[in-house]
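Sequence in, structure out. Go.
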Amino acid sequence: MSESMPPDKVPVKAQDIKATNTLPVLASPCLLDPGLGRIDLDLPCGMSLAEIVASVLPGLGISADAAGNLPLRVVLVNEQGAMPVEQRNWQFVRPRPGVRVLIRALPGKSAIRTILMIVVTIAAVALGQLWAVPIAGALGISAAVVSAGLTLGLSALGNLLVNALVPPTSANPGDQSGAGGNEVKQSYTITGWKNRLSPDGAVPVALGKHRYAPPFGAISYTEIVGDIQYVRALFLFGYGPLKLSEFKLGTTDLDEYDEIEIETREGLSGDAPLTLYPKQVIEEAVGSDLTRPLPRNDAGTVVSGPANEKPVTRYTAANSTGASVIISFPGGLFHYNSNGKLQSLSVSVRIRYRALQSGDDWTTVTTLNVSAGKREAFYRQHSWEFPKRGRYEVEVTRLTNERTNDREQDRTVFLVLQSLRPEYPLNFDRPLALAALRIKATYQLNNSLDNFSALVSRVCLDWDKAGGSWISRETSNPAALYRFVLQSPANPYPVADSGIDLGFLQDWHEFCAAKGLKFNFVLDRDLTLFEVLQLIAAAGRATPRHDGVKWSVVIDRPQDMVVDHISPRNSDGFKWTRTYLDPPDAFRVPFFDETNEFEPAERVVPWPGFSGEINLTEEIELPGKTNPDEIWIEARRRMYEIIHRPNRYSALQDGAVRVATRGDLIMGSLDVLEKSQVAAHVKRVEGNLIVLDEEIQMEEGADYAVRFRTGICEEDTIGTSSLRSVVFESEPGCVIRVDGGGVLPKAGDIVHFGKASQESKPLIVRGIEAGQDFTSHITFVDAAPEIDALTDAEEPPTWSGVIGSELDDQLSIPARPRFTAIRTGVAGTGSANGLDVLLVPGSGSSATIGRFEIDHRLSGTSPWTSVDVTAAEGGGAISGYEVGDRVQLRARALTPNGLPGPYNAIFSITIGETDAGIPRGLGNGSGVVGGKAHAKVTIVTQNDENVVAVVIYRLASAGVLDREAHVIGTHGVSRSSTLEVIDGDATGEDGALLPAGSYDYYLEPKNEDDVAGPVSGPYTAVIT
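Output:
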């Protein structure tokens, strides 16, 4: 690219300027700042420049003069350079594809007056003077423009855009309003990180240090080894070299997981390929059931005949050398026999392929005969190679007929088709920082992989002040990152060392280090080089600068060297505007907090001198700032800029060559601001007497001085700004006498005369625009060195990250809880003396419940006994009572910090009142008689309604009764009845013979709640 290529249009990506069917057009509508409110659009190829200009004129708001001339400059730009086109040729020039059209408004004298009148109108509206809108109408300004101007005048951010030497930047550099946009926010955050797949997207450029959730470098794919599923994933952290550390899934360190393999590359020249993701795998999710239904009639009944074959077909990607099919059995594969025992089951699946649209016969790959007795989901995978590269049709068919037995489970799913290529998945000619993961599907990792992140740190050349050289190391210094971006592999036109003012960058580096200025940001979308440099430079209190030969910056800091003088004697059309601002109570600054794992946070920075409750705030972005203390300091600095740079000055100067440039310190003699200031030409110098062409008047008791430039020559076009004291003269005159010895001006020089320390006003050049007839329109702001002094004195309060204030406890009292169940006795708790209580929070309060306090006591007694249960438990058991006790209960809820709510109403209940009665013993006549291979058990019940069943136990004589081991049956009974039960085989027909021996029998009556009465026995029986 030639040197005439405007540096602010050098793209980060080469394809930004490749030939397309549209013409990119960039128009700068603002006369005062060509970067403010610009218009960026694409127009069809084939349009003439005249048609293009006409298309953007409505947005520019510019009209032709009486001669039909438009105050515009049109330049055509491509990779070879730039060429301006005169207006008379616009109708004949039709830019070809690949050319960018730049349109910039030129400030003529009338245009300058118009824009300044608008500024005056804005100031009037800000003051509340109702004549502002009539003036706007007289000027032909729409009400919308006045409204926009009013917003600008009342917005602190708008004030910075007008008056700041370093305009505020946004997370969206394309939005120079500073307000930011929805799509411009950084796409990364710890909570809810979602790794994204961005084909053909920008390769990320990490600058400084940040936690970053990178995009996928390739499509993740599944791998089946036996019954185990693995996922392989590749992540792209961007251009190297980068230090990668502290890997996480969500907010959990990767080290906490057992079954994850990770492989990283830091983006160094000569990095070996990744081995965990060595080839291209294009995975298509199919998810189709494989079926082979039996024939059925209209009623759905299975009829005789062959089953219906239902093949499922999919297509591989182009240039595939092989394929892989994954079959899923989501419900397992098994069947139960008639005894309920789990048995294995088999399914056959055939895999075939043929070249796409070839009409060839199918080639059978294999028939998978899958057998298993598993009730859990599992997978099978089969891979094979094609005879040659191409795109193929793959068919998967179930060969096993439909099974209709509900004791069988064999659902089979064609889950995934993978197209295989042997090539490495990345085709990029510059080193990249990467991470590849192989993750085993376990109980720890059973969801999609969508939140992988790492701490990334840029490694690049960094100025080492102690060693006096640039060395490669991790850095967040804006000066080092500024150089890196200029020379980065992300820049298709990297700048050589000779194209960078390294000496000045070294000075800026030391300035940033001394002030604690850092830049931590990840660029992951297409931006122009200049937009990136703006972001970085603003973090270092600077703006980018290219002097036609080298890249540098303009730093906003106190200066000693005066570059030029300006006064009514060497300029005209001087204007002064002030934006009247009712400041907000505070700035709100969103940022990613490096002290808390780079989680999103917001710091509220009060306006200097403000005290009390903060109600009115304005959001300001500080891209790249992640330290809470730096956020405070830089936000306060922006406030001091608004306070101490309320004015904006402008003037016109003749001549094509200017001494001062943007960011230079100049001295202005401005009698419209300070009446004691006088600018005059020197007629002659005689000794210490200087004869001027202007009469001056001195006031009694005031000290005076004169300032002038000396030492100007071809080798030194700046010279020195010299200051000499003036001897007081009571009478007006054109002659002044300087005090003491020193340099003196020469005849023809311009001098600034006035009260000492007020003879000139220190100003900083904010911008210079070329005008018509070799004029220059120069804008200035106050030098205001007190901004830095106040900023350096700032001591940020301790940062906690807590947003908002705690509410009064009385505003968040829990509501009365509500009992949902109170259960007692065997029926409710399984224990005759049991008492269980369940409760839930009441309604009507948003307070968080930490625990419940349940009070209980015997009815009519005091005091209460308390039991605490957590809100998560929702209740618990209360002990200490017996059947028949009358118990009173009440409860209240408490917040996590112990604030109690009111008690609910007292509830009374009797322990066991709903239980059935305990059975009495069995009646006389109950017993057991032994026989051959059996025993006869006789059960006689009394007139007892509580007896509903009797349990029979049998054990070897003289043994110890074990109710679980010795039970032989439970038999339903009724009151006042006799029941005979045969234990063994009295007939010899069913073979259930009772072995010979001596046995003890026990009989145990039970009620409907399964509560036992007295046990009868032992009854001894001898079996023969």
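Check: The first strand starts at residue 22 and ends at 28. The two ends are 115 Å apart (CA to CA).
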